[in-house]
Amino acid sequence: MTRNVRSEFLRRLNDSIEGEVASDRQTRALYTSDASNYRVPPDVVVAPRSGEAIQTLLALCSEEQVSVTMRGAGTSVAGNACGPGVLVDTSRHLSRVLEVDPVARTAIVEPGVVLDDLNRLVAAHGLRVGPDPSTHARCSIGGMIGNNACGPRSIRWGTTADNVISMDVALSDGRRAVFGPAPESNSDPQYAGISEARDLVRGLHELVGEHEALIRRDLWPWSRRISGYAIDRLLPERGFDIAKALVGTEGTCAVTLLAALQLVEIPPSISLLVIPFPDDVAAAGAVPALLEEAPLAVEGITAELLGASGMTKLGSVIPEGRAWLLVEASGDSDSEARDHAHRLVKVAAIGGARIIDDARARSLLWRVREESAGRATRLADGTAAWPGLEDAAVPPSRLADYLGEFHRLLAAHGLRGTTFGHFGEGCLHVRIGFDFSGVRGVERFSSFMIEAADLIVEHGGSLSGEHGDGRARSALLSRMYRPEVIDLFAEFKTIWDPQGILNPGVVVDPEPIERSLRPAIPNSFDPSLQMAFRADNSDIRSAVQRCVGIGKCVIRQPGNLMCPSFQATGNERDSTRGRARLLQEMMAGDLIGDGWRSVAVRDALDLCLSCKGCASDCPAGVDMAAYKTEFLYHHYRHRLRPRSQYSLGWLPTWLALTERVAPIADLVLRGGFSKRAVAAVAGISPDRTFPAFAKATFRYQARGWFASGEGVGNPVTLWPDSFNDHFSPEVLEAGAALLTKAGFGVKIPDKRVCCGLTWITTGQLDRARRVLGRTLNRIDDGDNPVVVLEPSCAAALRDDLPELMSGDQRAHRLSERVRTLAEILTGAPIEWNEAPGLESSRAIVQPHCHQQAILGTEADVRLLDQAGVEVDELLTGCCGLAGNFGMERGHEEIAQRVAELVLVPALHRAEETTRIVADGFSCRTQIEHVAGRKAYHLAEVLLERIGGAD
Questions:
Q1: In terms of DSSP bridges, do strands 391-393 and 323-331 run parallel, antiparallel, or are they unpaired?
Q2: What end-to-end distance do the CA atoms of the chain give, in Å?
Q3: Residue range 238-249: average pLDDT?
Q4: Average pLDDT over residues 132-150
Q5: Residue 701, pLDDT score
Q6: b vs e for 99-121, b when ≥16 Cβ sit within 10 Å of the residue's Cβ?
């Protein structure tokens, strides 16, 4: 048994551990859950900097009888990585690759190494790690070892256990030992590497000797039998391999400090085959025949998983059907791989199969499959779906029969689920629409799980096929194994962890599956919302529960759209997942008990750039920018706000007031003492240079121009956004001239209009609603497109406007009319001519975050290509300024670090003659600030390509 952490123990941890030790409510709230249904708040969170620190930690916890739970990337879906006592985060610091031997094809790594990082390192030698779970971009090697991760290509390369050579581990009392297979000529326990482990190894020998017949009979050697412990790995004929037996023990027996992995060779050529079926049962029925041709992967997806938008996007790529198998063929050459694919088509005996040659289409299909766990968190009607029976596996020959009966079981319980998975190994993933609200919902969850477990066992399967048992299935192991085997597991754990401090309640002596369910937490939080949250039926609790913790936001590789602040800091608090977890805890009212007034939530949201990257990049559809807006409204309602929210949040108003005295305002804001004084009063960073005011706004210069919208072509309204109007009217002038040359009749609003963006992002929603209401009164309510050149304004009108003004039909009509310049020019009859004197026909494009997330960049790139501009790089990720964020005092360092992730290196690579294209005003401002280079709007570049303005 373990007991709660005491203050004296905390003091000893802080004094003894090399690394971070935190017991504050905010940090504990961040780590209450993993990617499962379960919530168990830890008492303290430790991020050790070395293996020795883990040893010290375990020794202290053993002495105090405090439980320890290990966590890598926090993507475990069975509740394996959340627990009481001390939670250890290895992802922060233990991420070194100590050795790569390309000849022996081995690597030695620390547990926090991310799989993709290791694969990038060894790819230069034509090697990779065999197992490849869908979370490969963020999952840690330690987590893969804990759960015995597999992935789609395990049918060729095996599970993690099959690819582990040896392990350097810390035992539950802090001792250290190295384990691997026993030497063929010597069964002496001394081979363990450190003499202190002799008794442990001797105990394992005695355990196997006593129960050898039971192990052979009940623990059959099937790679996807992940449930329970792999004690069969200790049988003499299997090499008495302690390292492989430890893989999949879910941190309940020992803690990985180092692991030696066997690497595999990357096939020279791979082809992707897509085979259509009427449903997933039919797809499962085709698997056994396909396996006879030794494919590299056989994965199943369904139309329900793709949804309407996915079906539309993939309609030109995949053949018509309601379910598909993605089958990889391989060979030593392209022709061999294609021949392999044709043989697979032949044995499948299904019409309509398609070999996908286009690399982009293959990447898109695999992205859909890899994001399935997030996509499946919502059913077709938008209701939530949850893990639980997440990764059951049956022999592939029985998958079709099992899947058919599984669907009937769902129907009998009135449940729906979205299926996908590693069909080639009989492993089925599913997210099910459990309703955890109320006792009856929890009871139905429990009864369904019991019947589903029995169905799996009936078909000769394993409750877990790759993610481990965790809190989700450990209590069901007694339905899969006889009592003698359950007792055997308990003996095995006791040998390793006699005090029972490692991940208690998992595998051995489990808690009931209905205990500690996160979505079932009673919640009295009943907010009156300002935003509509239409996708979540106006329920912000449902919205923030979209984040189940799959962790795509914690990918640290630069170039990902989500989440720039996490990429800059590496802190869980600064990830989309971390912020969502704090919001969930705020609504639960336990660890975060002060609701909308929570300082902990406010501080975590402070470094959210409101980039909206998560709105498009998060497979579960989390929109942290919207949640931040709603939170800021309530947090500061009837209270004094930070000064920057009055200065930058009201920027369009201040610009309108200074329009007639712009030269004087420019002198004040760009002077030495006056600039610092204004910055101090306004809460703005004194290190930023204020953009220069234009001598005259576009609206002033265009009085009488483009008034009627009548011309040779269809009328369009050009939106004079505040940023370009006051700081870079030449952009609007270029846009107007370009539209005119393209044959459109250009009209501008008679009075000032505004999208309300600055008020929205700072949570000043009452004011934003008034501004937008006035705008709706001033802009015509016709059918002609509204062309918006500033991406942040276009995104606000398209996405935020109908959320904030959901009851005003004019808002919905305006939202639908918004077009970007590239969208309106697509298909326009433009003759591109290279104008004389152009500096370059090459460009680097930095799209605004909101453009990447909400609007898309395909049309822009296509137009540049048509205009003869070659795009050297289309950058992804945030520039770091992000509207008001980078201008605010206190954000300078993060804004710079975000810029240095992708933008700054790209600017350094670019030749002086290469054009920098950035539609976002904040992006152009940031580019000038960090590199001293001028960036151009798409309108300016395109206008040059048709001869410039008349």
A1: unpaired
A2: 83
A3: 96
A4: 95
A5: 87
A6: ebeeeebbbbbbbbbbbbbbbee
